Amino acid sequence: MSDYRIWLCLVVLVGICSVLVNGLGVNWGTMASHPLPPKIVVQMLKANKIQKVKIFDADSSTMEALAGSGIEVMVAIPNNMLGYMIDYDTAKQWVKHNVSRYNFQGGVNIKYVAVGNEPFLTTYNGSFLNITLPALQNVQAALNSAGVGDSIKATVPLNADVYNSPASNPVPSAGRFRADISDLMTQIVSFLHSSGAPFTVNIYPFLSLYDNPNFPVDYAFFDGTSSPVVDSNGIQYNNVFDANFDTLVSALTAVGLGDLPIIVGEVGWPTEGDVNAKMAYAQRFYNGLLLKLSANQGTPRRPNQYVEVYMFSLIDEDAKSIMPGNFERHWGIFRYDGQPKFALDYARQGQEMLPVSASGVQYLPQRWCVFSGSGDLSKLGDNINYACSRSDCTALGYGSSCNGLDSNGNASFAFNMYFQVQNQQPQSCYFQGLAVETTQNPSTPECNFTIQIVYNGAAASSVAQLGAVFVIFLWLFSVTV
Ligand SMILES: *[C@@H]1O[C@H](CO)[C@@H](O)[C@H](O)[C@H]1NC(C)=O
Ligand SMILES: *[C@@H]1O[C@H](CO)[C@@H](O)[C@H](O)[C@H]1NC(C)=O
Ligand SMILES: *[C@@H]1O[C@H](CO)[C@@H](O)[C@H](O)[C@H]1NC(C)=O
Ligand SMILES: *[C@@H]1O[C@H](CO)[C@@H](O)[C@H](O)[C@H]1NC(C)=O
Ligand SMILES: *[C@@H]1O[C@H](CO)[C@@H](O)[C@H](O)[C@H]1NC(C)=O
Fold first, then answer.
1. Which of 123, 125, 127, 323 to mutate to test the pocket of ligand 2 (most atoms within 8 A of CB)?
2. Whose Cα sits closest to atom 2 in ligand 5?
3. Residue-wise pLDDT tens digits, 231-247
4. Could you report the per-residue pLDDT of 164-184, keeping only the tens digit for each?
5. Is residue 272 within 8 Å of residue 395, measured between CB atoms?
6. Which residues are the active-site residues?
7. Which of 215, 227, 261, 263 has the greatest number of C-beta atoms within 10 Å?
8. Which domains, ranges and CATH numbers included, belong to the chain?
9. What are the helix (H) ranges across 327-426?
């Protein structure tokens, strides 16, 4: 497309874009072996006009990078700290150190405090059931007492498994809070209502598909389905996102709070680690979602409304647990290094634009570690397992981009992932004599053998040299003094 047409689009679409931007947030997780520097991430958010971000802690380097950006932030208290928050003084200390401290002109624009993260997942065996509400109450009280309670609200991001419809009547209008926590949920939503806070829910159409092989694929997306769900009230649902959202609306209505504001704390699609976790599906999902959001369609039960949504997620995280599945490390709309994976229809005009990539990212040198093809082959399996248990080999799995490698390719891939995680240290490419370093890129058209980015003093050659010079300088200096 020629330049003037792009400019024309930009001018025409400014109004629409600003609506979209208003609705669009993103989750920024940092469970990576080599997280991008926070300043680079914030620059990337700004370059992509993302104005809301949800983080999973209140890490000071993240907060310092966000300071002055104007970006709205949801900070979080991780589940393992919820127990402490049942003590009001501890909650006050937490607010003082992690919220009030940033509350100044040019500080961090905190809007929400997430109290826990999906604390009622059944896999937690009820560990957080009796501490979440007291923690929520104490944190909001602490925010109020610090004088910021009017503008900063405590909420609890919950998985959509806290509500459901009965199997006998699986329609949104039959939605109720999960039977085992229904009293607790009623108390929590009453509290959110009284404090003026929204309900925060994470909705995952991908997981509906992943968990149920009979799930109709097109119902997970937004471009029409051959198997709509027709509710008893006559409403027809063409996508599971709307149906899920409205199931929550029904559950809230059933406890007398049908108007409680809802924000979607997480929604997204992974690109690797399962047959359905592919780039084309992620792109289809996001573009359908963005179109819907930018049009402020709302859902059948809450039509014509702006829905506040945080995409999950910003960047791939290679150190996340893969208990939920191999896809867990591949939710990013950006790769580990801040390169966009696919184009997004920011402007809802069928024009998909590649998001702006992170700038100033430093990579390790162009070196890989591969299987040498010789050595004690009886030790190969153990060495591959060793490498994969300490790095991310999920791209090798069934349905993933590197699943087509032969067994030698598998070994090379595993060795390289470990070598990169270890910042290419020479001794990390040994594997009992089975591995060798190379400067020839072993990637195939389908499968990337990645080069890690520089992290924490891990050295790209130029940085290493600079560092070495600096160290020598310091040493000389100290010797001289
Ligand atoms: C928040 O504040 C507490 C002090 O109450 C501190 O221990 C903690 O490390 C702070 N940071 C985060 C990320 O929670
Ligand atoms: C929950 O219970 C199951 C079975 O009793 C156990 O295997 C699992 O480790 C428990 N999980 C947690 C988080 O306590
Ligand atoms: C939560 O419940 C467990 C047992 O169900 C109990 O041991 C614990 O003291 C309770 N904690 C609070 C804060 O009520
Ligand atoms: C490569 O590794 C993956 C994952 O462990 C496995 O599914 C696949 O069968 C392996 N391929 C070969 C040729 O060994
Ligand atoms: C491999 O990485 C490059 C960027 O370095 C990207 O353009 C390409 O799409 C990736 N290929 C696969 C199969 O992921």
1. 125
2. 448
3. 999 999 999 999 999 99
4. 999 999 999 999 999 999 999
5. yes
6. 118, 266
7. 263
8. 17-329 (3.20.20.80), 368-456 (no CATH)
9. 380-389, 407-421
